[in-house]
Amino acid sequence: MDRALLLALLFLVAGPPPAGAEDPVGVPVYPGAATDDATVSYCAAAAMQMHLQVQGKGLKAEVMCFRSSDAFSRVVTFYGHQPSLQRMPAGSGGGRSALFCSRGPRCSGEAGGVQVQVQSPWHAAGAERKDVIVTISTSRKSARRP
């Protein structure tokens, strides 16, 4: 297994920073948001997609996922007020989704980029979840091996 993917999966097992705290990339976790088995399942798939996105770019990706029972608009407003983020144009697809990237903009497919996606509904373990999931992903240059 690729080292970056292994580290991302180990992070998922070790757990996220406490809710409401800033994570290592400087983006706060939505207050009261939590991680559980469904978010771990969802996040494993998101980590795999992120790993494929940065593969071959010399980047290391990290993905964290949290869920909240608060209203979608409230979670979006929270991330919209973060000075380090800017909202990106809305995409298409079912449900509600909002995307935020590091100012610049630098999304997580670029070195130093941070991406926050807020989504509702979402799917994990074969079931539709009607609450809100927040996915925070980042990438940075990986250490070169001698």
Domain tally: 1
Strand content: 25-35%
**Series of secondary-structure elements, N-terminal to C-terminal:** HHEHEEEEEE
Structural class: alpha+beta
Low-pLDDT runs of 5+ residues are 1-21
User: In total, how many beta strands?
Assistant: 7
Q: Strand order, main sheet: write it out.
A: 1-7-4-3-2
Tell me, rounded to a whole number, the average pLDDT.
79
Q: What is the count of DSSP helices, taking H or I runs of 4+ residues? A: 3
Radius of gyration: 14 Å
Given the C-alpha coordinates, what overall shape results? globular
Helix content: 25-40%
What's a concise summary of this model?
This protein has helices at residues 3-14, 37-54, 72-80, and strands spanning 59-68, 85-87, 96-102, 114-120, 122-124, 127-129, 132-141. It has 146 residues and is of the alpha+beta class. It is globular and about 40 Å long.
